[in-house]
């Protein structure tokens, strides 16, 4: 009887899974929907070059600030209600900013939209921990794929939608996903008692050696005092810094190498799309391996090899360099899985997720700006690639700590019973 239980343990949790996937689909749209049509938006909203640069820095800064605040709010209000508020904020921000005609309100409502998404970034891992502690790898893989899709789909569809509907309708239309994402979580909150009872039944019947089910005790310490927290935050930050630097500057690198501007855009799209397969594979590998550091090291090497290729022969072998750089950010979905695999409770996962993403995104904020400064002052890309390779070295060292088998709560003293989950 017990052998058949894992196959059935998805039953009753499909609504939660749908909610997780819908939220993940909404977490990058406010960023990706604007950049392909930025020239049109700038004309109508009167964004100067400086303000356009500010717009480019808002996502990382918002993810850092509001991601850090999410655990504080969730501890008081509950994970699910906080996520509902986050999705409402993102939808309202997206819609209202599409109606503005001056730069101040446009930037302000962009911050509101990204505040909701920054909170959602942090809240998804502990929700996976709460509802799918026996399926951390597969569920993280599914929602990582959804996040990757939410980056690539707007990049492909934003310009055609803007031509057909106008840029304001095109931007506002993406808020539909945030609105729809609220529905499953409202149902989960309304049915919270039944959902918790069903989850307890599933976990009681699951084999005791199932990953993520050992010793469910309350988190009660300071993440910033642990090597695990800093290792994961530094690895997360360096990965984000390199990824966003490429999103910002890859087309210019290829144009300077002699490729036409439209080719730079196509290669950037390929760079984004190539992240999809490893968004699925990364969490699965992290869940199956006791120490997934060899995978993280290979991905770091892909960053270095891709950078050297772009530096030494950007126009020849471009496809290979894009392949390497496209799969290298796979460290990100691995770290999302490790947030749950290195904690015992949803409270621990919330604390670790908030610290890792808050500090990590904060570290990455200066990255695209530093790349621009070095490029402007040196007139070339050599110094830029030296800087980026140095950050990859930091990533590799930090990942060694992040991937090491350990449990966050073990460093926080004696365990105490965790109270029943309340939305």
TrEMBL record:
* Topology term for the membrane: Multi-pass membrane protein
Q: Where are the transmembrane segments?
A: 51-74, 81-100, 106-124, 136-159, 165-190, 228-247, 267-286, 293-313, 319-339, 351-375, 381-403
In terms of Pfam families, this protein maps to: MFS_1
Q: Which residues form the Major facilitator superfamily (MFS) profile domain?
A: 12-408
GO cellular component terms listed in the entry, alphabetical order: plasma membrane
Q: Where is it located?
A: Cell membrane
Show the coiled coil region(s): none
Supply the alphabetized keyword list.
Membrane, Transmembrane, Transmembrane helix
* Xref: Gene3D superfamilies: MFS general substrate transporter like domains
Query: What is an example of a GO molecular function annotated in this UniProt entry?
Result: transmembrane transporter activity
Q: Which InterPro entries match?
A: MFS (IPR011701), MFS_Cyanate_Porter (IPR052524), MFS_dom (IPR020846), MFS_trans_sf (IPR036259)
Q: Show the SUPFAM superfamilies listed in the entry.
A: MFS general substrate transporter
Output this protein's name: Putative MFS transporter
Q: What is the source species?
A: Cellulomonas aerilata
